[in-house]
Design brief:
The strands form 13 sheets. Strands 28, 29, 31, 32, 41, 42, 44, 45, 49, 50, 51, 53 and 54 form a 13-stranded mixed sheet that branches. The relative contact order is 0.07. A hairpin with a 4-residue loop joins strand 28 and strand 29. The radius of gyration is 57 Å and the shape is rod-shaped. By secondary structure, the chain is mainly beta. The chain is 6% helix and 48% strand. InterPro entries: Ig-like_fold (IPR013783). Keywords: Signal. It comes from Flagellimonas sp. MMG031.
């Protein structure tokens, strides 16, 4: 074929030569034909097997670099696999990229490589060509990475975490490397595929681990794992606790224990170093703390939590275990806006201060505590202190309840009793048709009103009525009771007015009635003693609510320093639903509910006292009394540093137990009050000491529970109270009531 081609070309050249020679004296020389084939060689970068005896193993895609030489020039370089063209290049330097990803690697029957013929052909510009061939093997199988001991999302922690894995390839491996968070960790060259991960050097949370395997054909396989590093113990919070919290009753601790990466293995509660309980697994993490099981004082509660990796965390909560003395519930509206300050404090029976709290306008509850043990025969005293200041002085009032056993009186529920608004209404109403002697004995006297006769210099007479309203509208009166007594005729009459009085009212005798009025007698029986004096007060209540709240109306109030032959007369009207009265016979005093009895016999008790350096020593005798009461009062203000200083102090105590009452120490918060100088100097004035007995209240604890606990008027609990008293004014009974007592 090549010979024929060469002959044809030669004959064409000769014909051309002769045709031209007829026109030219010098014919052109005949060119020599190019019959020399190009020279060719090729290589595959990165593969040295072409010069060795081994058959090269190629994969996926490779590059053939061709060295083609020809004096006439190279027209084309082509590559073939098994005579199938797979690439070409016509520009030096000659490189052909061949994709073999679609070729199978091995014979499925023999498991051996299939021989593929790689041929590179170079054609010069004259059409001469040269080829070179090379048997190649194709490996498109990737290495395999298996049995990796670290799983995706696995949580590990600590400095020792051995990770093992297997790597295989059908021919052989050129490299196996492991990476941690993108940084080369180790190149595995000895065929042992294991690596330790030290998580103590890692940030808690997600981290990446990668294995990279490359085979001899540069097939690359990677295995990526995102694992969780956890070197931190669980998080512990106890939102219900604050630093220094007082614990005075059993409470349940319910901490929030959580771990962002691991499972909670156990939670332990400790007091100091002493373990109290260990809770394991997925349970409710709670513990009931009984402060009674521990000594009073500051302590630390520790909560330790451990996760499944052994990471431990601990939280400390500083608390103070105290013994609760009492809870005082303060109702809305209890605070008197006229008071500058109101405190309550607890003291030991020897007067030492145990605790103090201030009561504000928005205070709803007060708790008092002690770091003393309160079991056995422990008792304490409770004192309320109120301070009222004015432009020319100040007044302090105290109320103390002694002999309190915390187990018998765990709480006091105060009531909003009478607290009058600062303003009041005073009106005068003209009178008509009255005998001048009668109108002078017209009076009105109730809890929130007062009234009586008045006359001007011209002889004009009027009736004035002053009305005051309680700050608590639930305690308002609905009616006003007027009483009129004719001493000449010994005639008692009364009138009942609506609270809202007609401004055009004219007070006339026709307003008054004697209907339902009865004159009665009571006998003061003195047991052979010489009679000196007696007094009586009789109150009426229009309904049960008025009775319970002591919203009283004065029916009769008189005293006698002589004994009428028939006995002591008084008048009562039946317009009321309930009655309360008190009678004094010399140094005997009794208060009872219902209509007065016919006779009264003083109790066979004795009472005496001495007062020195804020300590009252008491001597008494007799049975049946349960409550002692001491009344201290300045009577008239004392001038200290140019200010008028007034004070009042009521104390109650167990009359069957105490023969000595010590005034409590004054808290620092109260020592700035005006009375304190008098207290320091022991200058208080004791006005009265008494002992009392209550029907239906067998002992002092019964009094605390029935009267003090719910801030109740004693007469609503007991229908009969009897007292033996010693007053600084003989025969004068100082009632001295306040919000807590009487």
């Amino acid at each position: 074929m090549n010979f024929l081609r060469s002959t044809i070309l030669l004959l064409l050249a000769v014909g051309i030569f002769y045709s031209c020679s007829s026109d030219s004296a010098d014919p052109a020389p005949i060119p020599v034909p190019d019959t020399i084939a190009p020279e060719v060689d090729f290589s595959i970068p990165g593969n040295s097997s072409l010069t060795d005896s081994e058959t090269p193993v190629l994969s996926n895609q490779f590059v053939v670099e061709v060295d083609a030489q020809d004096t006439g020039g190279v027209a084309m370089v082509e590559a073939f696999i098994n005579n199938e063209k797979v690439g070409e290049d016509s520009t030096a330097p000659y490189q052909i990229t061949i994709d073999i990803s679609g070729y199978t690697s091995k014979n499925n029957l023999t498991g051996k490589f299939t021989d593929y013929m790689l041929k590179v052909t170079v054609t010069d510009t004259s059409g001469n060509e040269t080829s070179k061939e090379q048997i190649i093997h194709i490996d498109n199988e990737l290495p395999t990475i298996s049995a990796v001991s670290l799983g995706d999302g696995q949580v590990i922690g600590g400095d020792t975490n051995l990770v093992t894995f297997d790597v295989d390839d059908n021919e052989g491996l050129s490299s196996v490397k492991s990476y941690l968070n993108g940084t080369l960790l180790q190149e595995h060259t000895d065929g042992t595929y294991e690596i330790n991960l030290n998580t103590s050097e890692l940030t808690d949370g997600e981290n990446s681990f990668k294995i990279e395997a490359v085979d001899l054909a540069d097939n690359v396989t990677t295995y990526d794992v995102v694992f969780i590093s956890d070197n931190t113990g669980p998080e512990i919070t106890l939102e219900s606790f604050v630093t220094g919290q007082i614990v005075d009753e059993p409470i349940q601790l319910n901490p929030d224990v959580s771990d962002a990466n691991s499972t909670i293995a156990s939670v332990e509660f400790l007091i100091g170093d002493a373990s109290q309980v260990v809770l394991e697994g997925d349970v409710s993490y709670s513990w009931d703390l009984d402060p009674g099981a521990f000594n009073p004082g500051p302590i630390s509660i520790f909560i330790k939590a451990t996760d499944e990796l052994g990471n431990e965390s601990s939280a400390e909560f500083r608390i103070e275990i105290l013994r609760r003395l009492i809870t005082i519930n303060v109702p809305v509206g209890f605070f008197n806006p006229n008071s500058a300050r109101l405190f309550v404090f607890a003291s030991g029976m020897d007067g030492t201060l145990l605790d103090v709290e201030r009561i504000y306008s928005d205070t709803e509850m007060v708790r008092l505590h002690t770091d003393n043990e309160t079991g056995g025969d422990f008792e304490y005293m409770l004192t309320f202190g109120e301070y009222i200041t004015g432009s020319i002085g100040n007044a302090s009032e105290f109320t103390t309840v002694q002999n309190i056993d915390p187990t018998n009186l765990p709480q006091i529920n105060l009531n909003t009793y009478y607290k009058f608004e600062p303003s009041f209404q005073s009106n005068q109403y003209p009178t008509a048709d009255f005998d001048p002697d009668d109108i002078q004995n017209l009076t009105a006297d109730g809890r929130d009103y007062a009234g009586g006769f008045s006359a001007d210099t011209n002889g004009n007479t009027t009736v004035y009525i002053e009305q005051r309203r309680n700050a608590n509208s639930d305690l308002w009166s609905d009616s006003i009771y007027l009483q009129l007594f004719n001493y000449t005729l010994n005639e008692y009459s009364y009138a009942v007015l609506d609270w809202t009085i007609d401004p055009e009212l004219v007070v006339t005798p026709s307003l008054f009635t004697t209907q339902g009025v009865e004159r009665k007698i009571y006998q003061p029986i003195m047991n052979g003693q010489s009679f000196e004096s007696t007094t009586m007060q009789l109150f009426g209540y229009f309904d049960q609510d008025d009775f319970n709240n002591n919203n009283h109306n004065n029916i009769w109030s008189h005293g006698y320093t002589y004994l009428p032959t028939e006995g002591i007369p008084y008048y009562i009207s039946n317009v009321f639903s309930d009655y309360r009265y008190n009678i004094r016979i010399n140094d005997y005093f009794t208060e009872r509910t219902g209509q007065p009895e016919a006779s009264f016999t003083p109790v066979d008790w004795t009472i005496d006292y001495t007062f020195l350096e804020n300590q009252i020593n008491i001597t008494n005798s007799g049975v049946g009394h349960t409550v002692g009461k001491i009344f201290i009062d300045s009577d008239t203000p004392e001038v200290i540093n140019g200010l008028n200083i007034s004070y009042r102090w009521n104390l109650v105590y167990d009359s069957q137990k105490q023969n000595q009452v010590i005034l409590p120490e004054i808290p620092e918060e109260i020592q700035s009050w005006g009375f304190y100088t008098i207290y320091e100097n022991g200058g208080f004035k004791v006005r009265q000491v008494e002992i009392k007995g209550y029907q239906g209240i067998p002992d002092y604890n019964g009094y605390l529970d029935g009267v003090i606990k719910n801030n109740t008027y004693p007469y609503t609990v007991s229908p009969k109270m009897e007292s033996k008293f010693k007053s600084i004014v003989p025969g004068y009974y100082h009632r001295a009531p306040n919000f807590l007592l009487d």
